[in-house]
Amino acid sequence: MPNGGSWFDQFVNELPKKPWFKRVGAWILVPIWAWRTPVKPLRGGPRPSIQPADNLQSMMNLIMPLKRENKSPIGRAKAALAIAENKDQIFAGLDNVGTVHFARFVIVNDNICMFSVYDGDFSNYIRDFIATIGGVFDAVVALVEGGDDVLPSAHKVEAFIEWIRRHDLYQVPDTATDFLRDQEALNGDNAASGNDDLSLLPRKLILQLRANANVSLGSGYRAYPGYSAAQVRERLGIGW
Amino acid sequence: MVDASVAQRLVDDMISNLPKHDPGKRPVHTIGVGVDGYFTASDVARKYCIAEHFSGQRICAKVRFSNASGSPEQHDGWSDVRGMATRFLLPNGAATDLIATTLGEFFARNVEDFFEFTKFDKQKPCQRESPWRKILDMLQLKVPRRAPYPGEKTNAGAGILSYANRHRFAQLAVFEAKLIGAPVSYARAAYHAIHTFMVEGPDGVRRPVRFSWQPVAGVRNTNPDAPPDDNYLRQELDHRLRRWPARFMLMMTIGEAGDAIDDPTRPWPAKRVRVVMGTLTLTNVAEDQAAAGEHISFNPWRLVPGIEPSGDPILHARRDAYEVSRKMRGGIACPFFNRS
Fold it and tell me: Model pTM?
């Protein structure tokens, strides 16, 4: 809102829009506050499932940085081919998993990403995934930083599940203040109330996004929330 | 249900916190506009609720949109929660109300919390933050306090923030209220009936549900950087409805065991089943605003068979608090309000 204040007041109001001030914020202020008030990265993967519908239409946002030697058009092409050459195997495998609504692979910069919406428990989803298309996925993971440590996935199931979870994005809660609860829980603070300062929420968000540079914003929109892939198929008469 | 004296205290405490109050006006949501329209249930609504307005026939409706402030002074362009109270006039002569606001959650879990809130909700002089203070805020990665609106001498922002800092359950509502802004139109905001109700289907199954109105025209706020207009929402609605009706979809979210049924401070997860229950079509701003905007009295307990209140203590407190408020301002008692 135009404030009608002094020229100095108006100058200060415009500061956040100035490129030099943004650089001061990003290069000096944020690192200083990150040093003074360290923030731990929040764990990726789905939020705890409590009620039945919490186990439906969960998101997996897997961001896997390609190995250094693959951070090039050639490396990206290898990743694209690893998917394209095995499309039939992937689709058949996902059909067999049976609990997946949507799944797609995306290359963003030098990351190979898999985004999917699935029903049921995260660990079981990955376990089924390994059983049905683990071989294909191994070819992709072999191109990714740290991927060699969990291959072959069929022989290192638990390590592979944990590796996937580490690469799955932190899912910011749908409500801004629940994100504060996540930070508090990570620091062992589960009190119902505390001596908080809500005005610090912007800084806490900034520092969290420094610790978790990539996140999923909220649980997303659903046209038919609360229904499993199996229910949708059954009601549409296309079930298997 | 709360003791009558508690309901009176609730209303008195709210009024005592107002910088100005006209005894003939509502102590909150004072400025409003009455609108006529009709509601048509969706084809699936009757599968979930046997209440008559969900049977599918066109139901006359009266709606009062409002600014949440209890001030008799109109400031449409100020950031504020907005209200949408809807009365469904049923063919059998009964009526039922659905009261919703643009805030998705409440800031108190029960009457005790609310009384605690009223201790903090005190008007204090508000001044423009000094440029040096703003710089200090920015250096701390905090958002500087907004400048007072033209003519804004006091507000309760500092007290409410202090309340939220002490009570984590209140933080979501307070945070959302702080950012809520001003809609470009009453028809371009989403409204949420924050309480849980129990609806009964034709098969006898009772489900906990929460209702929301979604504007077909979409949600849009005014530019917060532009000077606020104190008086535009009623005229905008009038002009809009003279051109074309405005519509809202009534969405019903079905809760699950374990969801916060009796706590209006806690939202439900986005994964809950959501059903389109019908469409409200607003046709015109009511000609008699004294009746449609001022004297009309809504009550969240004005319900019909098929819908029952949950055990939410705030919902229970509102029943009598609304009645106390109605009597104090001489509002019209609803002839259909027979529930005890």
Answer: 0.92
Instruction: Name the β-bridge partners of B34.
Output: B64
Q: Which CATH topology does B4-121+157-329 take?
A: Catalase HpII,  Chain A, domain 1 (2.40.180)
Chain B contact residues (CB < 8 Å to A):
128, 131, 134-135, 138-143, 146-147, 149-150, 161, 164-169, 171-172, 174-176, 224-228, 254, 256-259, 267, 269-274
ipTM over 0.90: no
Q: Which residue of A has its CA nearest to B223?
A: A1
- Distance (Å, rounded) from C-alpha A188 to C-alpha B90? 53
Residue intervals in chain A for CATH 3.30.70.100: 52-169
Neighbours of B222 (CB within 10 A): 18
Residues in CB range of B324: below 8 A, 6 or more apart:
B4, B7, B8, B10, B11
Q: Each residue's pLDDT tens digit in chain B (340 positions)?
A: 567 688 898 888 888 888 888 888 888 899 999 999 999 999 999 999 999 999 999 999 999 999 999 888 999 999 999 999 999 999 988 999 999 999 999 999 999 999 999 999 999 998 889 999 999 999 999 999 988 999 898 999 999 999 999 999 999 999 999 999 999 999 999 999 999 999 999 999 999 999 999 999 999 999 998 999 999 999 999 999 999 999 999 999 999 988 999 999 999 988 899 999 999 999 999 999 988 888 899 999 999 999 999 999 999 999 999 988 888 887 777 655 544 3
How many whole angstroms separate alpha carbon B315 and alpha carbon B109?
10
